[in-house]
Amino acid sequence: MSSIKDVAELAGVSVKTVSRILNGFEGVSERTRAKVQEAMDRLEYYPSAAAQSLRGKETGLVSLITDHLTTTPDAFEIVAGIQSVCEKRGKLLLIGETGGSQESFQKLVEDFRRQRAQAIIFATMYHRKVEIKQSFERCPLILLNCFDTDSRYPCIIPDDEQGGFDATEHLLAQGHKRIAFLTLFEHMPATSLRVRGHLRALEKHGIEVDPNLITEGVFDDSQDEFAGLEALLKELLKGPKAPTAILCGNDKMAMRVYMHAIQLGYRIPDELSIVGYDNYRMIAENLVPKLTTVSLPYFQMGELAAELAIDGPAEKEKGKRNKRKNNHTIKIGGDLIVRGSTGFQ
């Protein structure tokens, strides 16, 4: 590995001159700068980020730690949003994945701190609560798609309550009054929030709540989380009080509802309207008819997390940091994307 001394020897200048150039000092001719740059290129020499940080210069590094995010297609836009801001702002994004291991999280935090990262973003595959045992007084931590148990750190989460409200409002506007909601697991924060939005929309329109129409559409089966969905739908859709529309916890569930509903003889949306959640485009745009769904604003969430990571420390140094509390929560709403799976009743 080349050193600053090797660069100086190849360029025919002193180590002090190379150091002055690397640190942005004036008083060095353009000819000398060009010689040093040429030597650095030939030797593939890059100044140490940690050393630059010790000299008071920002390293330009933003770190992202995820649980399973990089291998999850429908959540990868979080990474894309962060990367887009880093590219615009001239920052390098470092990514590490824990695989759900607390030990791996600790190691990645330590590694990124050694690199003198400006901030660390921790992003999860789905909206959930996390436990942060480390202290982040000097290297800021931004939570993305999650929140900590003690509310010590700023977090960016999707507005799941508004999403549940918007989906229900859409169906009510089409004349549906019997709307079933097949939720994700009850312990997931998104579930209670979306149900709250659903109930708020029903109340707004004076629709009486039937608790039998709100039930989990997922099952504790390691091989198939929708294993009991067919039997559930058969029971739900029989009788004169059957729902005319179904809200699904995600687009994968909606795809299975499509399949079972068609097998039961229903025409979508003529006899049964279906709404998904996530806007997982590989599913939503390839179902027939295409799926009406609520998007998760992952790209925008990633963008905002990167902006907080980059601007937060700088604002603190300048004494201009805003007065927001550490437990500041930012909710970003998704969009209702109307396609062909919903129709007027």
From TrEMBL:
InterPro entries: HTH_LacI, LacI/GalR-like_sensor, Lambda_DNA-bd_dom_sf, Peripla_BP_I. GO terms for molecular function: DNA-binding transcription factor activity; transcription cis-regulatory region binding. It comes from the Bacteria. The keyword DNA-binding applies. Residues 2-56 form the HTH lacI-type domain. Pfam families: LacI, Peripla_BP_3. Keywords: DNA-binding, Repressor, Transcription, Transcription regulation. This is HTH lacI-type domain-containing protein.
